[in-house]
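Re: [ENG-882] Designed sequences occasionally contain unexpected residues at chain ends

Forwarding the minimal case from QA. C-alpha cells:
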C-alpha cells in the first residue's frame, strides 16, 4: 500500500497563488470612498425635495415631516432614502394587514 503525500513546497513559495480579488477589493474600497461625497449630496438633495413638498403630497407617498426630520439625524454614511422607503413599506404592510 502506498501513501501519496503531495509536495507543496514549490507551490507555497509562489506568489501567483495569492487571491486575485485583493486588488479588486482595494479598488472597490477606493472607488466607494471617492464616490461617497456625491452620494451624500444626492441624498441630501432628495431630502430637501421631500421637505419642500406640501403635507398633502407627502401623505400621498406615505412620508411625514417627522420622518424627514428623523432621517436628518441618521449617520452621514447611511442613505436616508432607503430608510424612508423602509418606513413607507412598513406602514403600507401594517395598513393592509
Amino acid at each position: 500500500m502506498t501513501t501519496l503525500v503531495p509536495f507543496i513546497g514549490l507551490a507555497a513559495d509562489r506568489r501567483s497563488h495569492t487571491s486575485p480579488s485583493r486588488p479588486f477589493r482595494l479598488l472597490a474600497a477606493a472607488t466607494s470612498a471617492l464616490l461617497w461625497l456625491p452620494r451624500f449630496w444626492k441624498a441630501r438633495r432628495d431630502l430637501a425635495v421631500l421637505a419642500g413638498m406640501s403635507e398633502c403630497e407627502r401623505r400621498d407617498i406615505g412620508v411625514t415631516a417627522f420622518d424627514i426630520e428623523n432621517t436628518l439625524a441618521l449617520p452621514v454614511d447611511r442613505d436616508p432614502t432607503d430608510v424612508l422607503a423602509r418606513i413607507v413599506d412598513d406602514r403600507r404592510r401594517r395598513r393592509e394587514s
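QA comment: On inspection the terminal residues look reasonable. The chain is about 70% helix and 0% strand. Proposing we downgrade this to a documentation issue.
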